[in-house]
Design a protein that fits this description.
alpha+beta; 5-stranded antiparallel sheet; two-stranded antiparallel ribbon; 1 helix; 11 strands; elongated
Length: 131
C-alpha cells in the first residue's frame, strides 16, 4: 500500500530542491572570457567557474546591456576579464540570460578614485567632469 503522506513529502522535498537550485542560479558572478565578444550578435561568454579538472565552466553566449540605447546612444563592449554578473530571472540559464556590468577589480581598475568627479575613459582618452 502506498503511503500518501510519504509520497507527498517526497514530492515537496523534490520541489524544494529544484526551487533552491533555481534561486541559486538567478545571479552568478563571472568574468568575460577573453576573445568571446561577438560584435555581430552583441553577445559575450562569461567564465563562471573552473571545474575540478581545470576545465572552464562558461555561460552560453548572452547579451549585455548598453549604457544608453535611446536618444543618447552609447556603445561599450565588455573588456576581457571584466567582472560581470549573469542574470537569469527564471533561474534557468539560457537565451533570456543577460550579462550585467559588475564592478572594477585589479584587472580592470576604475578610472578615478575621487568622489567629486565623473570620468569617461576610452583607451588613452579621458574626459573628467568635476563638481
Amino acid at each position: 500500500m502506498i503511503d500518501l503522506a510519504a509520497r507527498e513529502l517526497r514530492t515537496l522535498r523534490r520541489q524544494l530542491i529544484q526551487t533552491t537550485g533555481r534561486l541559486a542560479r538567478m545571479v552568478l558572478p563571472g568574468t568575460v572570457k577573453p576573445g568571446s565578444q561577438d560584435m555581430a550578435n552583441r553577445t559575450v561568454r562569461l567564465l563562471l567557474a573552473t571545474g575540478e579538472d581545470g576545465s572552464e565552466i562558461l555561460s552560453p553566449p548572452v547579451r549585455w546591456p548598453e549604457p544608453g540605447a535611446g536618444r543618447l546612444q552609447v556603445h561599450s563592449a565588455p573588456a576581457d576579464d571584466a567582472q560581470m554578473d549573469l542574470h537569469s530571472p527564471s533561474g534557468t540559464i539560457g537565451t533570456t540570460s543577460k550579462a550585467i556590468w559588475s564592478t572594477y577589480d585589479e584587472d580592470n581598475p576604475p578610472p578615478s578614485d575621487q568622489a567629486d568627479e565623473a570620468v569617461v575613459k576610452f583607451g588613452d582618452s579621458t574626459v573628467r567632469l568635476t563638481a
